[in-house]
Structure to design on (291 residues):
């Protein structure tokens, strides 16, 4: 599974507003991947009237949904008002405010406040922040029109920024970070209010919510070295968060390597490396409400 968002030592008290710039820059970096995913999604269904971006963050994808489906109204739903402020500002810059709205509240309960059911619900890497994922999917299903689609983005592969051996420290740093982050993620899930442990069989969970699974596809982001400046910003912020959140579980050599990677004055850092790339895979699962 892919969890490119280590946050804070307090697993459930995430300061999303503090992460706003990182979330926005990361979503912008992933634009080619998201465009391919939305094109695939658009080929699977008729033009939606209402699209809900559940867990929208700063609204980068919300606005992409508005662009991909020009006849639809889009509602960005999130529990962080500062993130929704960014979403509204982006919608204004892109001149889609006439069919763009926001709804602030905790998922999934806030979905009951929608004025009418949605034809498409997009939920990207937000479901795993909810304690009872099966119950959340059932709540989403209840807010779909008959024939409406839930597009769930979960799973994929961890993002890679560097070769296995990049010349400093012990080879395999990112693989070791993956292992430590998996432990962090398990602790985060266990500490969520009402947490229920379920196998991450997303199609089965969607079927358990009364939906009919209709497809699964994985999309790649492949930015070869040397990566663009935006990728360097995302990589540096990602590794900085790893250093802050996972540092206690790493040995001294790996910590020293991270410090060098994050030091802008070090020619071996992420800020200067010619071998920095971005390779990521994200998986979209779709299901339809049939009755």
């Amino acid at each position: 599974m892919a969890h490119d968002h280590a946050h804070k030592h307090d697993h459930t008290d995430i300061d999303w507003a503090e992460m706003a710039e990182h979330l926005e820059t990361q979503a912008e970096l992933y634009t080619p991947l998201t465009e391919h995913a939305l094109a695939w999604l658009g080929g699977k269904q008729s033009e939606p009237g209402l699209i809900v971006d559940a867990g929208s963050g700063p609204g980068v994808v919300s606005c992409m949904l508005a662009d991909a489906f020009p006849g639809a109204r889009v509602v960005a739903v999130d529990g962080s008002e500062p993130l929704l402020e960014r979403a509204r500002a982006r919608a204004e810059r892109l001149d889609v405010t006439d069919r763009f709205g926001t709804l602030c509240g905790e998922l999934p309960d806030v979905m009951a406040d929608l004025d009418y059911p949605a034809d498409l619900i997009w939920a990207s890497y937000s479901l795993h922040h909810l304690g009872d994922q099966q119950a959340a999917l059932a709540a989403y299903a209840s807010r779909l029109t008959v024939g409406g689609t839930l597009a769930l983005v979960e799973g994929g592969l961890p993002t890679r920024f560097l070769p296995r051996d990049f010349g400093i420290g012990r080879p395999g740093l990112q693989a070791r970070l993956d292992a430590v982050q998996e432990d962090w993620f398990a602790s985060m899930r266990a500490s969520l209010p009402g947490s229920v442990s379920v196998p991450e069989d997303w199609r089965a969970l969607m079927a358990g919510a009364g939906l009919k699974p209709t497809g699964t596809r994985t999309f790649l982001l492949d930015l070869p070295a040397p990566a663009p400046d935006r990728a360097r910003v995302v990589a540096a912020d990602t590794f900085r968060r790893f250093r802050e959140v996972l540092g206690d579980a790493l040995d001294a050599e790996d910590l020293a390597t991270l410090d060098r990677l994050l030091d802008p004055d070090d020619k071996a850092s992420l800020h200067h490396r010619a071998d920095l790339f971005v390779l990521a895979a994200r998986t979209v699962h779709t299901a339809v409400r049939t009755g």
In short: Confidence is low (pLDDT under 50) at residues 6-12. The beta strands are 50-54, 73-78, 100-104, 118-124, 144-153, 157-160, 211-223, 278-289. DSSP finds nine helices and eight strands in the chain.
